[in-house]
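A student in our group prepared the protein record below, which I am reviewing. Thanks in advance; the entry in question is below.
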Amino acid sequence: MRDWLSHFALRIERVNILKAIRDGFAGIMPILLIGAFIFMLVELQIPLSLDATPGIPGLNWHITFEQIYVGVLGIIPIAAVVSISYSLALHSPHYSSRVLSPLVPALVGLSCLFLLVADPTGWSMFFEFGTSGVFIAVIVAVGSHLLFFFFYRFRLVVARPRASTSYLAQVVQLLEPALFTILIFAVLRFIFNIAGESNIPYYLQRGVINMLAGIANRFNSQLAVIIFFTFMHQLLWFFGLHNGDMLWNVAYTAGWPEIFDPLFFEFFVFSGGGVLALIAAVFIVRWKNASRPALVSLPMGIANIGSPIVYGLPIIFNPFFLIPFIFAPIFSAVISYMALSVGMSPIIEGVDPTMPVGLSGWMATGSAMAGVIQIIGLIMGTFIYLPFAWMANSASEERNDFAIEELMSRDAAPYMARRDDVGVFARSLFEEMEYDLRRKRGFYLEYQPMIDSNNRMLSFEARVRYRHASLGPLPTELVQALIEEGRMESELNTFIIDEALSSLQSLREYNFTDLLMTISLSPKQLGKPKNIKMMEAALAKYNIDPGLVRIELCSQEVLSPGFDPWMLIGSLEAIGLKVIIDNFNLQQTHFNNLRRMGVKAIKLSNALTQDAQYNELSATVIKHINTHAKPMTIIAEQIETKAQRDMLVELGCDIFQGKYFSKPMETADLALYLRLR
């Protein structure tokens, strides 16, 4: 089943429209969270107590909180149509020209929404729109998108202008698709006006209500009707059509008002099998990608407010959660109906459904049995969600692994400029890396000893690593590439130097005063005067002799076209730091250039050292380097066996490092390693 759901989810993600709708909902998530939190305060009536604050009479705090709630959630359809239209434009195969900004079709979609729902007598309906207008916002966003790009691609009136730097030329290209899209929606609104329907959202809602009421009248069992309406409510929610009043309006239309008390569904159907069960399942399966939205949504989940987690995970258009999202509330509905049938107390008016599960049922009915029923529904709902949350978590990890593998491909660069899911993943990953780097978390240094041919430890190399909160340790090449693309090399170099010199100072306190440290840094931004001064300040701060420090620079970057290594290496040598060139091979430069630059050592390419035992050509290249590079020190890394080390000694290498001697260690392990030696 997991494979089938994963395949189905993958097919949905390949549909640009559905993918754009998902991304659009993610865009309005912050507004939903704020609105849901304020709604929780309003429903719990906490602001009411503030009105009686001594010495500050008449401030009406509760009114202010309600206005915040209306102001935030009241624009949800407007925010949704802009966000989804913008996302649709980015995902469109026609969006390839700098002339077309995705903001233009987004504004056209917003205009079409206002055109359909605006009341010419006033604007009050917009402030009552709320989440009930999300469905029509999705329809308008998709419809206006398809029309706009149809008219953008196939010109009907205005010919495509010749290439021009004038903004007027861009306006001409965008005027026609915007005009015809708005005109078509105007015609649609005109048709509704002729039919006497001024409130289109209400018209659509009434059509759904009449349709469902007609189906409900065919049932002869109250329990069957409850199951049917719970099923339809959740199904419509899954596709973004949400209105809390719709459920009981259908019931009244169908003639079943006695069993469709809104409070029954709030207290017993949606509380037990609702979003709190999903949040619990997320924490149980330790779904790292979903833990943050689940944690943020937890207070609202306890208060039985579902929109943050529904839009935040998101549940909408997510095939992994369609089954539990529908059947967990159905299970709660069945056991609650059976409890009512065997004598559970009816609901008492005056209790707010935002009370926690268990407590709300007890207070609403005056019976502890009702609270137990709620808790049973919550537990069983959690068990229903568990396998699907596990499958979604597993699929999410596989997508993350695929994205990392795709990013590791050199063909994928530049990573953050990509418009697909891999690009979204790269941008999100970089933002988290930037956040962690500024707060000095996630990033750490590993140290690996460097051993000479007589098995004496001469130095140790410090390299930066990054451990993501949910993805774990990331490949160094990927981290470096994202840091470089995001232009964070200077900040990363500052972190590395400070951490490395701090570790070297701590080792000196253990009487390891003659050890050398090699610090691997990115050459980009390193040669600027402010960074050289920063290195001098760090050496002075930790009282480190510059002669004990070696700076290791990657040969591909130092010797790449357009990069001047002379100034960088000269600046480092001027403050007493020696330079090592990493990942060296014969194709990159001449030895005389390195000598003139003041390079004291070169580190062989990993491909050469790992291949030397089995490839005579690689061994010949290493011997040639050792012959012509003297008096520079030759370092061989990634030594994994004694035979590999012995062969490289015969070829003339001076210093070695690799798992054969020691794996990379953090500072505390390095101190223990040195004491044991």
In short: Confidence is low (pLDDT under 50) at residues 123-128. The first strand starts at residue 443 and ends at 452. Residues 497 and 540 are 12 Å apart (CA to CA). The first helix runs from residue 2 to 13.
